[in-house]
Structure formats: structure tokens, C-alpha cells
């Protein structure tokens, strides 16, 4: 009888011990979760990363630190007067600033503020992860109907330093609220005849009756324009851009008008895209065969 009581007492103690240890670990884990939460509210580095919003306030090129200022200034000039400063890579009448207004420093355009913080990035066009230099080469070959400058050229290096400078203070891989959406999300189908009217009434006075450009605004089609491989040659991209930013400084179209005029311009002739370097990045290191 006595032996059995001792046995039960032992079992009970063991159970209590196990329960006690579990209880302790339970409270410790909730305690530590709480502490992290409190630290985040108090502004720990982790909290800063998860809460920080990118803030649109690009520094001026002329305010760059002395050791990079010349390079930043040259990058800015290449953006705004591309033919003059990077003529050997350009075969049309556009500048980077024709689409990335004020060297990409304008919020009311395809802004490049923060772009330095969002690469390398996967792109389906290359089916590969591309860096910002490779992305820039694409705009030379397509938007500028030109030739891709090599990574170690003065032109490319200055552009990279410039784009990093105007991305100062933007947390890496943050989602930029000012990035251009890929389409308007409007199901309207482009009507080319209506688009022709919009063009004649609204666009022609700056971009020219024949889309050839004027001293006020760059060409929209023809030899002086972007080629058929450019992002702007997509009706979706063209219509978002036009609806948001055109006429420059006084956008006024309805979404339907923007889609119609995009359809109209899309039918016009323009240079054909010719690749000047490998577009798809081929597999360099053979991967082991899947079983
Ligand atoms: C005809 C219009 C046009 C011209 C000219 C142009 N671009 Fe672009 N650029 C675009 C479009 C459209 C995109 C894609 C925007 C998007 O996907 O958000 C783009 C994207 C870019 C990007 C990547 C931006 C990002 O957020 O991923 C870079 C970098 C860039 N351009 C640099 C340049 C440079 C440098 C030049 C001049 C050599 C240039 N572009 C000329 C239209 C143009
Ligand atoms: C008040 C003059 C003005 C009017 C009107 C105007 N634009 Fe523009 N547009 C400009 C200027 C200027 C630029 C180049 C911006 C720069 O260099 O800073 C531009 C650039 C563009 C670009 C990108 C560069 C290129 O040439 O491919 C497109 C696309 C465009 N405009 C479409 C249109 C469309 C479509 C309309 C009519 C709905 C229109 N614009 C009306 C002044 C105008």
C-alpha cells in the first residue's frame, strides 16, 4: 500500500515538472514576442525597414558631394541632352528626358527617382535578373532606337552614378508610389478614328501634324521616334503616360481618349528594333539535369 502511494507521488511530481517547464517556455516565448513588438514601435532598425515609406525628394545634381559631382552632372546632361552628350549611342531625335522629364527627377513623368534602390530585379523580357545598367541599355536600344553603351563606358558609368544619386535615401526594394502603372485598368478598346481626332485637336500643335515633332515637343512616330521594340510602343504604356502627363503640365484627356490616341499613334510607322547585343541572357553555367 505504502509503496503504491510513493509511486503515485513520484508520477505526480514528474507530471507537474513537465507541465511547469512547458508553462515557463510558453510565457517566455510570448514575452519575447512582445518585446520585439515594443522595440519595433520604439523605432528599432527592423521597424524602420518595415514601416519606412519612400519619400519623393530627389537631391539636385549640383548638390552631389565633390568626389562624384562631375560624374553626376554629366549623367544629368546625358539624360536631358542625350544626342549632344551620348550621340554615338542615339539614332533618333529623343532625349531620355522626353519620357523621363527633367532627367527622371520629375514626379509627373516616368520618374527615375529611387530606381537605384529597386535593382537588380527579375524581368520577364530577359527571363533573368537584370541590373540597372542592363535595364538602361534597353532604353538606348529601343526608346532611343540606338546602340547599347557597354558597362565600362563613360556614358553608362555617369548615368549609373547619376541615377544612384537621385535615389539617395530611398530604402532598398521599397515600393515606389510614383512608379508608372503598366495600364489604366480600363477595358475600353482603342478606336483609331476617334484617336485621330484627339491627335489633331490636342497633340498636333506641339508634336506636329505628322507626328514629326516641333521645337516644342519631340516626335511621336517616324524616323525620329522610338522603335517598335520600345515600352512606349505598347498601347497600355502609351495610354497611361498620355492620360497622366499629356499635354505636358496640363493633362486633360479622359482615359478613353488616351486609349484612342494611343491606338491611333500605334498604327503609324516607326523604326524597327534591331538588337545590338544579346537580348536573352543565355544560360552560362549549365545546371544539373533534373531527375
Ligand atoms: C520613348 C520614351 C522613353 C525614352 C526616350 C527613354 N525611356 Fe527609359 N523607360 C521608358 C519606359 C516606358 C520605361 C518603363 C517604365 C516602367 O516600366 O515603369 C522606361 C524605363 C527606364 C528605366 C527603368 C525604370 C524602372 O523603374 O524600372 C531606366 C533606368 C530608364 N528607362 C533609363 C532611360 C535612359 C537612361 C534613357 C535615355 C538613354 C531612357 N530611359 C529613355 C521610356 C523611355
Ligand atoms: C503643350 C505641348 C504638348 C502637347 C499639347 C502634347 N505634348 Fe506630348 N510632350 C510635350 C513635351 C514638351 C514632351 C517632352 C518632354 C520633355 O522633353 O520634357 C512630350 C512628350 C511626349 C511623349 C514622350 C516622348 C515622345 O516623343 O515619344 C509622348 C508619348 C507624348 N508626349 C504624347 C502626347 C500625346 C498623345 C498628346 C496629345 C494627347 C500630347 N503629347 C500633347 C508637349 C506636349
Quickly describe the structure.
With 291 residues, the protein is mainly alpha-helical. Helices cover 44% and strands 2% of the residues. The radius of gyration is 29 Å and the shape is elongated.
Count of all domains? 3
CATH architecture heading of the largest domain: Orthogonal Bundle
Helix content: 40-55%
User: In order across it, which strands form the biggest sheet?
Assistant: 1-2
Unreliable runs, pLDDT <50, ≥5 residues? Answer: 29-44
Number of strands: 2
Describe what this molecule looks like in 3D.
The chain is mostly helical and 291 residues long. The chain has 3 domains: 7-51; 61-165, Cytochrome c-like domain (Cytochrome Bc1 Complex, Chain D, domain 2), CATH 1.10.760.10; 192-266, Cytochrome c-like domain (Cytochrome Bc1 Complex, Chain D, domain 2), CATH 1.10.760. Helix content is 44%, strand content 2%. It contains 9 helices and 2 strands, in the order H-H-H-H-E-E-H-H-H-H-H. It has helices spanning 2-41, 45-51, 66-80, 82-86, 132-141, 154-165, 192-207, 235-245, 255-266, and strands at 121-123, 128-130. A two-stranded antiparallel sheet has the order 1-2. A hairpin with a 4-residue loop joins strand 1 and strand 2 (128-130). Helix 3 (66-80) packs across helix 6, helix 7 (192-207) packs across helix 9 (255-266) and helix 8 (235-245) packs across helix 9. It starts with a helix and ends in a 25-residue tail after the last helix. Residues 29-44 have low confidence and may be disordered.
Amino acid at each position: 500500500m505504502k509503496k503504491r502511494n510513493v509511486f503515485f507521488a513520484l508520477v505526480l511530481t514528474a507530471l507537474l515538472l513537465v507541465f511547469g517547464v512547458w508553462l515557463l517556455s510558453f510565457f517566455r516565448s510570448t514575452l519575447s514576442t512582445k518585446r520585439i513588438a515594443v522595440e519595433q514601435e520604439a523605432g528599432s532598425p527592423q521597424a524602420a525597414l518595415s514601416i519606412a515609406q519612400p519619400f519623393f525628394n530627389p537631391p539636385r545634381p549640383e548638390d552631389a558631394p565633390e568626389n562624384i559631382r562631375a560624374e553626376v552632372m554629366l549623367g544629368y546632361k546625358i539624360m536631358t541632352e542625350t544626342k549632344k552628350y551620348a550621340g554615338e549611342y542615339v539614332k533618333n531625335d529623343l532625349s531620355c528626358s522626353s519620357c523621363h522629364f527633367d532627367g527622371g527627377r520629375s514626379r509627373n513623368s516616368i520618374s527615375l527617382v529611387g530606381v537605384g534602390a529597386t535593382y537588380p530585379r527579375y524581368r520577364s523580357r530577359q527571363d533573368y535578373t537584370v541590373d540597372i545598367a542592363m535595364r538602361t541599355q534597353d532604353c538606348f536600344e529601343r526608346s532611343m532606337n540606338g546602340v547599347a553603351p557597354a558597362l565600362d563606358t563613360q556614358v553608362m558609368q555617369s548615368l549609373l552614378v547619376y541615377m544612384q544619386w537621385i535615389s539617395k535615401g530611398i530604402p532598398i526594394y521599397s515600393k515606389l508610389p510614383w512608379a508608372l502603372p503598366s495600364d489604366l485598368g480600363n477595358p475600353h478598346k482603342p478606336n483609331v478614328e476617334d484617336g485621330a481626332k484627339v491627335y489633331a485637336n490636342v497633340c498636333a500643335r506641339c508634336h506636329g501634324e505628322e507626328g514629326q515633332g516641333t521645337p516644342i515637343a519631340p516626335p511621336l512616330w517616324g524616323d525620329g521616334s522610338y522603335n517598335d521594340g520600345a515600352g512606349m510602343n505598347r498601347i497600355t504604356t502609351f495610354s497611361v503616360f498620355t492620360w497622366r502627363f499629356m499635354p505636358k503640365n496640363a493633362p486633360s484627356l479622359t482615359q478613353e481618349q488616351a486609349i484612342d490616341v494611343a491606338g491611333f499613334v500605334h498604327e503609324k510607322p516607326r523604326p524597327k528594333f534591331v538588337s545590338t547585343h544579346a537580348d536573352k541572357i543565355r544560360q552560362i553555367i549549365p545546371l544539373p539535369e533534373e531527375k
